[in-house]
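Whether sequence alone determines local backbone shape is best considered at the level of individual chains. Part of our work consisted of pairing the sequence of a single chain with a tokenised description of its backbone. This step matters because it turns folding into a mapping between discrete strings. For completeness, the protein is quoted in full, as a sequence line and a line of structure tokens:

_____
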Amino acid sequence: MPRSVNAVASKARRKKVLKNAKGFYGKRKNVYTVAKNIVEKGQTYSYVGRKLKKREYRQLWIARINAAVRQEGLSYSQFMDKLHKSGNDINRKILADLAMNEPLAFKALVDSVK
């Protein structure tokens, strides 16, 4: 009995990897063994990048809030402490947006917690 190989699945698997490698430079785009490693590495980077993005945005929001609050004579940590003690649980994303786009509303908020 002849050996049975599932050529359809093998070809589909290779095709999927090479499709993901589209746009890469040199052998990375058309040699399966090279493309397989690079695509896998790229997927790892994208997974890690999704985690880093959250971290970087939080840093950005904190920096923006800190800059806006220092103009009002408080530090970031003092402001956040007073904000939580006053029962205002506004997240950092909204606070940073207020500080950037609505400075008068942010100033009113800072004055209310002082």
